[in-house]
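BUG-398 | component: ligand-complex export | severity: low

The export step for magnesium ion jobs runs without errors, but we want the raw record kept on the ticket for reference. Input record follows.
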Amino acid sequence: MGNCCSVQCSFENFLLRGWDFIVGHANYVCKLKQTLPTLSAALQELRALRNDVQREVDVADQRLLKPFERVQLWLSTADTMITEAENLVSHGPQQMNNLCLGGCISENCLSSYKFGKRVAEMLQEISDHKSKGAFEKVAEDQPAASVVVRPLEQPVALESTIQKVWSCIEDKDVGIIGLYGLGGVGKTTLLTQINNKFGTTGNDFKVVIWALVSKDYDVGKIQDRIGENIGFLESWKNKSVDQKAVDIYGILSNKRFVVLLDDLWERMDLNQVGIPKPSQENGSKLIFTTRYLEVCGEMVARKKIKVECLEPWELFQDKVGDETLNSHPDIPNLAKQVAERCGGLPLSLITIGRAMACKTTLGEWKHAIEMLKRCALPKMENEGLNYVKNQMLKHGKE
Ligand SMILES: Nc1ncnc2c1ncn2[C@@H]1O[C@H](COP(=O)(O)OP(=O)(O)OP(=O)(O)O)[C@@H](O)[C@H]1O
Ligand SMILES: [Mg+2]
């Protein structure tokens, strides 16, 4: 009796499952008339959302921001889904043709069932994927560009000037700072120290950019230097000056930046290069060096800091070296006179100091003083300085 009952139950189960299958089958097939147009509409929406996200990723790419991996994965899944949904939609008319008896029976039952089922699943998948595609941000800002530390010999007696400049940098009212002074007085050295200090001292600047300007500068080349600092690709350099300016502006106006321009000989048009004007709002800074106070005025520098000549002895002594200075008791005194005649210009002190580093006779030192009396060393450019140096090196050899 028990056996008979269980056989009956299994048979009923079998019938029920069979019925479910037939109903499910009929459902998928019957609903094709509605699900197919719904799929077309869902496909269109997914395509539009995909295009929007892709456009945002393209903009991020142009700004050198790295798209999130989850966004890239979403895009590639969307692409696969779009292809499959297009395929289903394109087969829709043919599948509809197979239907008869009010659209509930198909001439090819199995194929229609599979098709209808896939359409229903696809609708669900597209709906799920669309809900995952509402990204607030598609890319993260690139990590703060670390400062490119520039090589520098340990400077002498520069600390107080560095502090002066640094306190201007910390002053939020000061956006543009001009460092001016004689040729060879140490402006580039000072600016280099400032650049390197950004790498070691806590600050919230996102990018520190160094560009050498010099006489008769080429705007495109300055932009290339800035582009390298920001991280633009090599091929970016082929763009026009105008386009580069737009790109540089686009990046820098979204970051708290420091631009260090070395050796300005005239006013530089910041707009032409693409450098946004530092302001209290953006908190950015522009620091430049020049030989001329007038250039500080033309650049509308909020602070103008004069780079002064050094106390000559420390640097000169360092370059000549103790061995030579101690080689005769009268040499230190003569050496001090030579150092004084260098006028506190590091460039002169270094050049002449190195030339005298191997001079150990009083005659050589006296000759040096005589030579320096005859020329106006502090006003000399490199060529003149090299001539004096060579004369000193030659002494005693002829
Ligand atoms: N404080 C210092 N201590 C040691 N060396 C220094 C110091 N200042 C400058 N020098 C050295 O003096 C030389 C000239 O300095 P720098 O190039 O900085 O001068 P500058 O003012 O930028 O000159 P220019 O106007 O020609 O650009 C460099 O060799 C530099 O290393
Ligand atoms: Mg310089």
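Assignee comment: Attached the raw record above. Residues 31 and 341 are 101 Å apart (CA to CA).
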